[in-house]
Amino acid sequence: MKYVEEYRDIKVVEKLARAIQKRVTQPWIIMEICGGQTHSIMKYNLEEFLPNQVQLVHGPGCPVCVTPLELIDKAIHLARQRNVILTSYGDMLRVPGSEDDLLKAKAQGGQVKMVYSPLDAIKVAELNPEKEVVFFAVGFETTAPANGFAVLEAKRKDLGNFSILSSHVLVPPAMEAILSSPHSRIQAFLAAGHVCTVMGYREYIPISEKYNVPIIITGFEPVDILQGILCAVNQLERGTSKVENAYSRVVTLEGNTGAQTTLKEVFRTVDRKWRGIGTIPMSGYALRQEYQNFDAERKFDLADTVNEESSLCIAGEVLQGLKKPTECPAFGTQCSPENPLGAPMVSSEGACAAYFHYRKREIESS
């Protein structure tokens, strides 16, 4: 299969691993920012191909994982309203709020409908004019353009019963927050190829220069990831730090300018709270004033609350690359995909879910 199987070629993987081994002379800590990359690393057991000096840690690149507890509770509250249909991607249904999750709300009679795109939610609104239809808009820069287009489409169709509950977050501010922390130990980043496909990588250049950190844009297949690690190690060993595009078959410097135009039209940049991390300045998208009629928080007058995370969950430390999922005392016991304490255990891109699924498979097969 062209453009897929060649990026899973074991001979190429082993060749890259040998090149990394040959190049490394001292310990280095590299963070992959994206949860999709984390799952590929675990699925293909890529850490086994790396020398002990190269340590991979996992970043906050799982949008479901960093959706604030308060927004989950707001979504649950909306789902329990008689006149509301709450539409959402499937991996949001099991994410725990302060007491329940959306799946429990549905089981208790709430109107929760899983959709595969925001345009599906538009169709639900058209088919149910007597109901208020809310789309739980979660994601990084990758999903934001489609959600912005859905808002434009709702305005064009004059759908007064459609709105979004926005939980969009942005990657570059999160990287800056991690690097500026006194506890940061990150020496290089693997940046998410799909985010850069939309946004380009111009925003990463000042971050790399300010913090003297190599940032390598790469993809999600084994060859992509190891190529990215090799590029990072080469820079670290040379003492250089720049943005390097190792995913040029997809990513350009400028990105998808059409998608960016939609983002600028519909959204404005705001401070955003990240679950387990806290508020990161100018790290989220909210609807512009001219689209406020499609803002579910405003339409339903949803009050802000402050809720406490489980004291057993160390998701915040995992998302900042300070600890691995297996260092959590609740991992695999009090916390599992069937009974998650935190979002990283239940999200399809969560680091804890990746460790639980793939490490469990390794144990069972040994």
Q: How are helices and strands ordered from N to C?
A: HEHEHEHEHEHEHEHHEHEHEEHHH
Per CATH, the superfamily of the largest domain is: HypD, alpha/beta domain 2
Amino- and carboxy-terminal Cα gap: 31 Å
CATH topology value of the largest domain: Rossmann fold
Instruction: Specify the biggest β-sheet.
Output: 6 strands, mixed
Strand content: 15-25%
* Poorly predicted runs: 361-366
Number of helices: 14
Average the pLDDT over all residues and give the rounded result.
Answer: 93
| Global morphology | globular
CATH top level class name of the largest domain: Alpha Beta
Question: Rg, please?
Answer: 21 Å
How many distinct folded domains?
Answer: 2
What is the SS-derived class?
alpha/beta
Quick one: how many beta strands? 11
CATH architecture of the largest domain: 3-Layer(aba) Sandwich
Physical arrangement of strands within the biggest beta sheet: 4-3-5-6-11-10
Task: Bin the helical content.
Answer: 25-40%
Instruction: Work out the oligomeric state of the chains in this entry.
Output: single chain
In words, what does this structure look like?
The structure is a single chain. This protein is α/β, with parallel strands linked by helices and 366 residues long. It has two domains: 312 residues, HypD, alpha/beta domain 2 (Rossmann fold); 51 residues, no CATH class. It has 14 helices and eleven strands. A six-stranded mixed β-sheet has the order 4-3-5-6-11-10, with helices on both faces. The protein has a five-stranded parallel β-sheet with strand order 2-1-7-8-9. Helix 6 packs across helix 11. It is globular, with a radius of gyration of 21 Å. The two termini are 31 Å apart. 50% of the residues are buried.
